[in-house]
Amino acid sequence: MAAGKKVRKNKMMNTETSIYDVIVVGAGLAGLTAAKALHEKDKNYLVLEATERAGGKVRSKISEDSSRYFELGAQFVNKDMTEIVKLIEESGMTLEETHIPEDLVVISEKSREPILFDFKDIPEMLRDITAADSDPQTLASLLDKHVENNRKRQIIKSFVAAETTVNSDYINAEALGNLVSRITTTNNELNYQASGPLSQVIRYLETINEEAIRYHEPVVKVKETENGYILKTKNNTKYHAKSIIFATPPTAAARIEFSSSLADHYDRYLKSYIDGAVIKMTFVYDNPFWREQAIKGKKKPVYGVIYAANEGVNLIDSSITGGENRLTLFIGGDKAKEFFNVPSGVKEFFAKERLIEVFGEEAEMYKDYEISEWSGSRYCGGGYGAMVHYKGEPKANEYLKEPFNNVVFASTELGPQFPQFMEGAIRSGQYAAKRLVEEMQ
Ligand SMILES: Cc1cc2nc3c(=O)[nH]c(=O)nc-3n(C[C@H](O)[C@H](O)[C@H](O)COP(=O)(O)OP(=O)(O)OC[C@H]3O[C@@H](n4cnc5c(N)ncnc54)[C@H](O)[C@@H]3O)c2cc1C
């Protein structure tokens, strides 16, 4: 149940007289699912979203004639991600398999050498090396120490920068070990995609919370009162709530001005995070030439390329089985930051060069192309999720996810499972709503 709007004008300031049980700040997946849980508990709640749209890092672009769509943000799931799978189904879609052949290879760029180590072993390797050294260290320094083979080290660093959207030079090794331990699946996280645009999931959640969402309302200040909180937005509107769920990335929450008791409790944990940076570019082809490659004299379907010489650049076959032939190039970490504010033609040229470098001129024959750039996004953070930097508190997530004075945080970074994925955001939103409702009883 969402309360109706009552706005009383007060000079330059608008003040709502309603007092909500809960205000949810942010209408990404974490905020929308927290709101859904509050709706199901018949709470009086409101969602304040900074931008003109819900969904945050889930955003689809559909062509004018609806014949094709691109996911500008999140795209892939697997069947262990039960909550996002449920939402995909509840919003009227099914799961489609990503085209991942059995006899596939992942190669490194110029040499076109197959990468022989198993990427599934990397989390375990990271856990082992982070457990071996207890001083606060960057992941890069641990990799330099523990991975002797230069080429292998370069490949791992490039893979890490693409997967986390932060270069290993800044990543807190212990926090990464903690993050990896929350991703318990043994299945490839890219196995499935929704049969339609993920904006349908967002629309479904928006419809449930329809009356309760206010757009264009970035929260800038939070003040504690005798019986709750006043939230002030950039448009000079004040909202009253007994409790708050901050469903924003911790880096975005760190930009909000908090009253002193909240700041004293939370500042250190919020400031433990740094934003990632990612650019996603998808190319559509008539001919899937990458599945017919001669690798070491044998024809092998190439599934992915890791660009060791360009840290953070990875390419994957993002096609749905039986669907269009697509390649997606991700640029993550510092490389993505380098491209911030650079004309998109330059980024397309860089991507084209990377494709031609591996597959030859045929890679230039794409019939459609889409680019999305998340670097520097004030409200969503620039990558898949923010990461704990090497001076940060490795267990910051544990403190942020628990209520304090009727305030709690929710976001993919805090996901009890699958942090940095949509699933992590959903589970975190559900957990925050449940814990807050328990505290309020
Ligand atoms: C390019 C890309 C590819 C990805 N690929 C995948 C994938 O294949 N599979 C997968 O599972 N995940 C993927 N992810 C990650 C996934 O999208 C995120 O983990 C998830 O969507 C995060 O949800 P969230 O609710 O935690 O945060 P967000 O989506 O960032 O939502 C936060 C919301 O809070 C709002 N907000 C922030 N500050 C304020 C404020 N002060 N006041 C009011 N509102 C505020 C923002 O505008 C936003 O709407 C990808 C992400 C990107 C960018």
Chart the SSEs and their pairings:
Layout: E1 7-10, E2 13-25, H1 29-40, E3 45-48, E4 60-62, E5 69-71, E6 76-77, H2 82-90, E7 95-97, E8 105-108, H3 121-132, H4 139-146, H5 150-164, H6 173-181, E9 192-194, H7 199-208, E10 213-214, E11 219-225, E12 228-233, E13 237-246, H8 250-253, E14 257-258, H9 260-270, E15 273-274, E16 278-285, E17 293-295, E18 298-300, E19 302-307, E20 313-317, E21 325-332, H10 334-338, H11 344-359, E22 368-373, E23 387-388, H12 396-400, E24 407-409, H13 422-440
Parallel strand pairs: 2-3, 2-13, 3-10, 8-19, 11-14, 13-24
Antiparallel strand pairs: 1-2, 4-5, 6-9, 7-9, 11-12, 12-13, 15-23, 16-21, 16-22, 17-18, 19-20, 20-21
Helix pairs in contact: 1-7, 1-13, 3-6
The structure holds flavin-adenine dinucleotide (FAD).
User: How many structurally independent domains?
Assistant: 2
Number of strands: 24
Q: Any idea of the CATH class of the largest domain? A: Alpha Beta
By CATH, the topology of the largest domain is Polyamine Oxidase, Chain A, domain 2
Provide the β-strand percentage band: 25-35%
Q: Which shape, going by the Cα principal axes?
A: globular
The rounded Rg comes to 22 Å
- Low-confidence region ranges: 1-11
Residue share in helix? 25-40%
Q: DSSP helix count?
A: 13
Tell me the structural class: alpha/beta
Instruction: Summarize model confidence as the mean pLDDT.
Output: 91
Largest sheet: 9 strands, mixed
Bound molecules: flavin-adenine dinucleotide
CATH architecture of the largest domain: Alpha-Beta Complex
